[in-house]
Amino acid sequence: MKRYIRNSIILAGFIVLGSLNSCKKSFLDQKPYTSLNVADAITNEKDMLAALNGTYSSLRSALVAFGGASVASTTTNSFARNIPVIGDLAADNVFVSARNSGRYLTFGAYTWTQAATEYRDIWANLYTTILKANNIINSPLAQSVTTDQYKGEAYAVRALCYFELAQFYARPYTDSPTSPGVPLVLTFDYTLKPKRNTVGEVYTQIIADLDKAYTMAVAYRGSGYLSKYAARGLEAKVALFKGDYPTALTYAEDVIKNSGFNLLAAGNVVNYWAATAPQSATKNETLFEVVSDNVLNLGTDELAYMYSQDGYGDLLCAPELYNLYRATDVRKSLIKAGARSNAENPAYIVTKFKSVTDDRDDKKVIRVSDVYLIAAEAAKGNNNEPLALTYLNTLVAQRDPGLVYASAGSQLLEDILVERRKELAFEGDRLHTLNRLKRAITRSNVFPTAALNIPYADFRRIGPIPQTETNNNPNITQNPGYN
Prior knowledge:
Layout (H helix, E strand, L loop, with lengths): L5 E2 L6 E6 L25 H16 E6 L6 E5 L4 H8 L4 E3 L8 H5 L7 H21 L7 H25 L29 H18 L11 H15 L2 H14 L10 H6 L11 E5 L12 H5 L7 E3 L1 H4 L12 E4 L8 E4 L12 E5 H14 L3 H12 L12 H15 L6 H7 L4 E2 L10 E2 L12 H6 L11
Antiparallel strand pairs: 1-2, 2-3, 3-4, 5-7, 6-10, 8-9, 11-12
Helix pairs in contact: 1-4, 1-5, 4-5, 5-6, 5-7, 6-7, 7-8, 7-12, 8-12, 12-13, 12-14, 13-14
């Protein structure tokens, strides 16, 4: 093997480990991370592509040694399961069955602590991915159409990671842009012990990265890669989360009118969710998804295992969500009214994710349907209710053709939010939507009694800065309530 590098960064309580090129030697047999400039590992376009592929892979999972190199490493999980699960379970869409495998119980009960491994893993995983994206972005390789494409995709990956970090570990921009966000790490520095940037500073960086991706990542390489209009769709969502309705509408309409992506039609909904392979040439619905295939997957730690009755089957649809779907709504066919032996009867079983063996389900990150909902809410926020109804009803016509909204004022906003809840259920959106709107979480009695009503002021509406980080980084502050 001619060249290798072990990417490492202390941020600050863990060491992130990742390889740009595969190496069969043990970590202890390799050069220490201080002996080689990380940029030296990328010396040509082939190296950069290999690095980029590794960056995408780490969105699913990454190897991290917590507390230092002498501590055994573990595989962290973000988009493969933790991000979509917590986004629904810590809100009101799903609950943990009475007969369960013991996973995510504290999220149903709202009793997690600073030591929560799920929040630790999301943090570590996303910063691992950011490090890998930084290596590509900061590479001195000569500019070309190809390097622009790869760097543009890396900018989009970094923006996505920071957006997720901001949603999980900081109060929303709509609450206070000057409140503590997350540390911005844009270069490689293994000595770094960063402070938290403000929420506003984090959003400014996210938008700058997505602007670069929009102009650089112009080629569409399939739904498993971030491209020009995937970046624009994400930026529309970021603008919505800022409460910047004019920008959110402009960017959403750019995707709808100019991307060439098609809105998922009613007749294709069931087959769309049954498919496990990412799109290649076709531009149908999925702007970007995190791919797990029959080789590169987390096995029983994949999302489908939490919902499928062929897996753990722990997570069930809350009755109030199930009852929002009319009998004529094609999305209702993705939830089966059945029973769990020695547990819930009826049990509303989610069948949106089916594959627990071989080629696993890919996790949708941004879809055209989401962009239509962004356009509708942004148009409403921009005082253009006719346009809001147009975008809302265009989507609904492909889900429940007999339903046509004609509402106005506050009811129109509620209708948009109900359709957002129905369309993006089980994809991790719900908690963050309720947070940005500063709304209480109101649950039915299928949840633990002590966790039926969670006001926006509850400190657990955002996660803790992981204990591994606060123990080792004297410059970082913890979120209130977790000390």
